[in-house]
Every structure is written in C-alpha cells, then in structure tokens.
Design brief:
Elements lengths: L3 E3 L3 E4 L5 H14 L4 H19 L6 E9 L4 E9 L4 H13 L8 H13 L3 H5 L16 E2 L6 E6 H10 L5 H9 L1 H5 L2 E7 L2 E9 L1
Antiparallel strand pairs: 1-3, 2-3, 3-4, 4-8, 5-6, 6-7, 7-8
Length: about 210
Amino acid sequence: MIQKITTEKVKVANTGAGMNDALAMTEKAASLFNLDGKNRLRARLLAEELLSMSRSVAGQFTADYWIDLEEDTRKFTIHLEAQTQLDYSARQELLSVSTTGKNAASVGIMDKIRGIFEAGLYNIEESFQLQAEYGTGMFSYGALGTVDDGMSEAVYAWSMQKYKQSVEAAKDDEPAAWDELEKSIIANIADDVSVGVLRDKVTLTVSKKF
C-alpha cells in the first residue's frame, strides 16, 4: 500500500498573494520527503515555474495549492486547483487570441500550458472546436497531447508527456518545438505536467519521482 502524505492547502492568487507561503510549504514538503540538496532545488524550481505561470493567467483568479508525497513510489506531486469562471471579458479576450494566433512567435511550453489552463478556467469550449492552440497556430489540442484519462465527466485532460511524444515524433519537421522543450526547465525536470477539467474545476499537476 502506498503511504501518501498530503500537505495543507495554501490559497494563491495571480496577484501574487500566497505564493511565498506556497514556496515555504514546498520547502517543508521537500524536507519531510528527505530530499537532498540537489533534489530539494529541483522541487523548488518546479514550484517556482508553476507559480510563475499562474501569475500570467488572464483575469483574476485564486486557486488551492498543495503537495502529495507518495513514500513507496517517491512521487512528489504539486497541485494547483481553481474553480472555473464565467468572466466574460477575459473569455472574449482569450478567444480572440486563440483564433488569431496573436503573439505566435513569443511563446514556449509554459505559455502553452497557461493557455490550456486558461481555456479550462474560462470554459472556452469554442477554442477546442476550432482546434485553436495559444502560441503556434499550428497544433490542435489533440496534437498538444489531449488524452482521455478515463474520467467520463472530464471536458478534457492534457499531458506534457503526450505532447513531448508527439513533438519528438515530428522533430525533424518542426525542430523549433523540440528545441523549446529541450530548453524548458519544467520539461527537463518534471516527469509529467497535466491539466484537467472536471465539471466546475480546473486542475494543474506537476509530478516528479525522486
């Protein structure tokens, strides 16, 4: 049986509120997990990447941040969970970006993850129907790694590992996307990053086995 420890939840906002507390809790969890100095730094870097991404989410939102520690598998999983919203102005702005490919040349993997998280946060179903993807204007959400994770009520679930596999398979044709992954901190440290929408919640998880 896997012994799992779940930390307390910290409320964070994209205004920056609660983020120092979230980082402090991450350090505490790393210590509780008996991580050495190098792995403790990796855990903090993953937390910093996730929290930094959340600062750039459109509109105003708050989310619960917590960590699960699985002793048997040595799996360290960071969670960010928010209620879906009906912010009309933010929704329309994001739809405009998704359909025009605005700022297409300036985004990396974390921008793609943010775009997918935002789409779930603001219930942007049209963006999936249009096969729109924030950033490249080239991949559909399916090509980005949308997966059926067995949750019958899920709107969608996305996995960075699935995305990496699709990019690797096409890296000779699209070397920029592969180069983007090779340079990404989170893509090189995390085992997986996933985004899922279930009814009225959107969740983002970052997992790493130490």
